[in-house]
Amino acid sequence: MTSPNETLTATPHRLDKVSLGKIVQIREILLRTQAKGARVIRFESGDPSFSVAPHVLKAIAEAGAAGKTHYVPNDGIPELRRALAEKLRTKNGIADILPRDVFLTNGAMHALYVTFGTLLNADDEVIIPDPMWTEVAENIRLSGGVPVRVPVDAGSDYTYDPEAVERAITPATRAIFVNSPHNPTGAVLSRETLEALVAIAREHDLWIVSDEAYEDVLYEPYTHTSIASIAGDWADRVISVFSFSKSHAMSGLRVGYVVTKSAVLQERIQKLLRCTINGVNSLAQWAALAAVTGPQDHLQSMRAEYAVRRGLMMDALSQVPGVRPFNPRGAFYVWAELEPSIYERLGVNNADELSARLAANGIGSAPGDAFGEQCADAIRFAFSCDTEMVRTGAELLRSALSGEEAL
Ligand SMILES: Cc1ncc(COP(=O)(O)O)c(C=O)c1O
C-alpha cells in the first residue's frame, strides 16, 4: 500500500520549489536555547522592539467593546481605505489614489502574495535584486513566476544598476521589482535610479512592483521616494506594497496593503482576498486606522533609536578584520561581506557555517545565501531588537568574530 506521503510526493507540487527559509530555522534554534534559560541575541529577524502606541491599543479595546468583531469587507474597512488613500496622496505623493485602489492584506507578505498572484501567468519573469529578502522570490515562484536576479554590489552602494536591469529583460519579463529601503542591505534608491527604472519599464512595457515596507525607517540624509509618485504616465503600471509592521511596530497584528489603479487587477485582488482571508482581522484594521490617523511623532524617536543601534553595530563590526559592513541608509539591517580570512580564523568553511556556529552560541544572524545566489560570502545582522540587546550583542559579535572569544 502506498503511504500517504508517497501519494503526495509522487507528482511534483508547486510548493516543493519554495523554501521554508533559513532564517526561520535559525530562529528556532535561538528560541530553543532561550527556552532553556540561556541568553540569546535576536539579530536574525527584523521585528521592531517598540511597543504599539497607546492610542492604537486603545482603538483595539474600543473596537472590541463596540462589537466590531464580525465579518468585515473583503478589501478592508472603508474608514481605513479612505485614510490610507489620503496618506498615499499626501505623504507618498501618489496622485489620484482613491479608497477603491487600496486593498488591506495580512501584512506586506500577503500583499506580495496577492500582487504576484494576480499579476503573473505561468513562467512570467520578474526582475529582483540579488540579494533580496527571501520571500520575494518565493512568492514569485508560488504564483508560477520566475525570479530573475540582478546582482547589486557594495561598489554601487547596493543600488540597482539600470543598465544591468535592462540587460536582464527577456520576452518573458513581466515586472521589475523594487524595494527601497532594501532588506537585506539597507540600500536606498535615489530618485534618479527610480526614474531610470520607470523609463526602462515604459520602454519595455513592464509593470513595476514596489515594496515600501521600510518607508519610515531611514537615516539622515536619506529620504524615501515612492516610485509611483514620480512615474508620471506610467504610475498606473506601478503596484505599491506597504506595511504597518515596521513603521508602527505592528508586526504581530498583520496589516499591510497593496495599491493599484488597474481595474483588472482590482477585480482579481477581490477574488484572491475573498478566497484566502475574506478580510483582515477587524480589530487589527481599527488599530491600523488609529495608527495612520493618530500622532506620528513616534516615527522620529524610532528613527533616532535605530540610528543609535546602527552606530553600535557599525562600530563593532568595523573593528573585525575580514568583515566589510555596509552602513545602512534605511531599514534595520547590517549587511556585511566576509573575506576568506574570517573563515580561516574561526575554522568554518562559509557564511552558512558561521551563522550556524553563532546560533549555537545564542547569536542570531542570517547567512547571505538565504537572500540570493551571488552573496554566499555575506551575512546579515538585524538590529531591530532593543538597544540594550544590540549593545550587548554587538560587543559579543565583535569579540567572537575577532577570535577573542571561542565560538
Ligand atoms: C522587504 C520586506 N517586504 C515585506 C516584508 C513583510 O512584512 P510584513 O508582512 O510584516 O508586513 C518584510 C518583512 O521583513 C520585508 O523585509
If you had to describe this structure to a student in words, what would you say it looks like?
- With 407 residues, the protein is α/β, with parallel strands linked by helices.
- Strand 8 and strand 9 form a beta hairpin.
- The relative contact order is 0.17.
- The longest helix has 21 residues.
- Helix 2 packs parallel to helix 13.
- The protein contains 14 helices and 11 strands.
- A 7-stranded mixed beta sheet has the order 1-7-6-5-4-2-3, sandwiched between helices.
- Helices cover 41% and strands 14% of the residues.
- The protein is globular and about 60 Å long.
- Bound molecules: pyridoxal-5'-phosphate.
- The site of pyridoxal-5'-phosphate (PLP) has 13 residues, from helix 5.
- The site of pyridoxal-5'-phosphate has 13 residues, from helix 5.
Which features characterize this protein?
binds pyridoxal-5'-phosphate, seven-stranded mixed beta sheet, globular, 407 residues, 14% strand, four-stranded antiparallel beta sheet
